[in-house]
């Protein structure tokens, strides 16, 4: 049964003109209060549109949401709600969601409904009302608090170090732009999602060098190497446990979760022997020193996190990203962590085309890559295929142009050589010296 609403019957006195019911036909006051709060701020039609957009989402929360093994409730903390909203955007609205610093980009696909933007606005407005009415005790999950902080800093700090901005009338500092970036945690990009093609063979080594300049520890270097060698998302590496490493037979592999798997270890990552050495060195030296138990790999429990902060607590994405961003800025590289994933796929696709001898081998290896990446939509690989189809055309076209240039050189060389040769004729003194066929003789006679 789905969430639904009913208008107050005529003749019945109630402070609510509309009442929302949950999947068990019980009155659901949070959405009821939200609707009536909206009516005081926006038009009745817009308030009803927001409510109608939220009803399927709340139904989905009760029936299909999952966060750490349980259903998500609307009163849960922001991190749980964001996971639920992200899952709903991907699974129910066919969107592509991509992590970006402290927020997420939401890209539409051909299957996405026209209501994605309205859905995000509705959820954001719902929590705004709940906070105002005192029914939600956390900050709005749909608001990127970091963006608000950065915006405040940019509008309050002056060009002088640790000094506030001078008054506008002073004319000593550039005016503040009137348009500000959205503070939404889920930022909708109104275009269909396309994966990036990053075909620079030296990209990983540029990142490693940037890390060395920023004096990365073994931890940051290991994570960076694993990003490029495995094609995994940063969170899938940062949240690894010792048990994830022990779960695989090969010492070059670990088990990990996938986006949308709700923590279940549904895929594996594979990396180089050199990275294995770096990883074990980190665990048995740098990590051992900051771990409260001060033990190495052999004595760590399976649930122990592989990567720790300097305070001995599990490493988080935000704590790790600080070091990544610092290194990229210092080396003036505009590279976010997710580009390592695109680089991995592009590089693997190039290998597929280089080592495969038949179309059947190409298709087999592409299917293996799709399974390894755990792509829900196999069509994701088509953009990379298109890129390499264009590459093959360029190569074939270049070969044709080279052949044309070679033929042109040969033609010019032969033409010059023929000019230098003098035309020499052999004269026949007497026709009696040779005997000709009758028809040939008539032809020769006709040429005189």
Please write out the topology.
Blueprint: E1 4-7, E2 18-21, H1 29-39, H2 44-63, H3 78-91, E3 96-100, E4 103-108, H4 116-132, H5 145-156, E5 186-192, H6 203-213, H7 218-230, H8 234-238, H9 242-246, E6 253-257, E7 265-270, H10 273-290, H11 317-330, H12 338-355, H13 359-373, H14 380-420, H15 438-446
Question: Could you explain the architecture of this structure?
Answer:
This protein is mainly alpha-helical and 448 residues long. The protein folds into two domains: 4-153, no CATH class; 194-399, hpI Integrase, Chain A (Orthogonal Bundle), CATH 1.10.443.10. It has 15 helices and seven strands. The chain has helices at 29-39, 44-63, 78-91, 116-132, 145-156, 203-213, 218-230, 234-238, 242-246, 273-290, 317-330, 338-355, 359-373, 380-420, 438-446; strands at 4-7, 18-21, 96-100, 103-108, 186-192, 253-257, 265-270. A three-stranded mixed sheet has the order 3-4-5, covered by helices on one side. A two-stranded antiparallel sheet has the order 1-2. Strands 6-7 form a two-stranded antiparallel sheet. A hairpin with a 2-residue loop joins strand 3 (96-100) and strand 4 (103-108). The relative contact order is 0.07. Belongs to the 'phage' integrase family.
